[in-house]
Amino acid sequence: MAEHNTATAPGTAAAVTPLIDIGVNLAHDSYDADREAVLERAWDAGLVQMIVTGSTLASSTQAIALARAHPGRLFATAGVHPHHAPELTGERLEDLSALARDPRVVAVGECGLDYFRDFSPRPAQQQAFHRQLDLARSAGKPVFLHQRDAHEDFVAILREHASAWRGVAHCFTGDAAQLECYLGLGLAIGITGWICDERRGAHLATLMPRIPAARLLLETDGPYLLPRDLKPKPASRRNEPAYLAHVARAVARARGEPAELLARTSTDNARRLFGLPVPGGHHPN
Description:
Blueprint: E1 19-24, H1 35-44, E2 47-52, H2 57-69, E3 74-78, H3 90-100, E4 105-114, H4 122-139, E5 143-148, H5 151-161, E6 167-169, H6 176-184, E7 188-191, H7 202-207, E8 216-218, H8 244-255, H9 259-274
């Protein structure tokens, strides 16, 4: 176990509380040397719970193990990211199905389509997406969705499976038309530090008031997407959950509302969508 680190992470001063990070890749090897210290900094920064993203069968298994080690504070998703779509063969689908039904798993995914990098053939991505949407419905769990440069196919596949979805458009970076489409499908919207990037994410600020308060969720997607305007930046350039307060303040400014209000509503939204318990209390209705 890493030594406890009580140092405050950059960007966490005047933390807003409570916060839930609905998407952090905590099983990533960049956290191997200091994972427990990362968690301690997150709790110190006002986070109360986190959802650890599964993007392969292996990382989904690791996410569940982390949730088992931190009951009530860490939870997991189980899924196969489109970059790894060929791994989801018919045989491995049975393995994913078993993982998805673990009580620590609160969503199926990260799943979807990514035509920006095309690390996997598009037909394989589409097949894996179909399979995971079927799994989410059979398991009775929400979906944790990824889409990049594939909006039309992404929406068409979602609509093929259901007219309305319970889940989140993870790391939303799209335009107003895409936002309205996802809201129309019943999805929540996950906002990351992308909004802090003046080169690529400035348009997101104008869209924040369009997201109904009950549909807005916050996430870091660590170790990726370190907020570009974070000062001082960590030498490693690694993102971590402690920086979620920084993202929350940026979103609150864009919405014209107090950061504490945004923290409370986004936390309530996360608990309602994913069925997370209130620490020391009961599951939400």
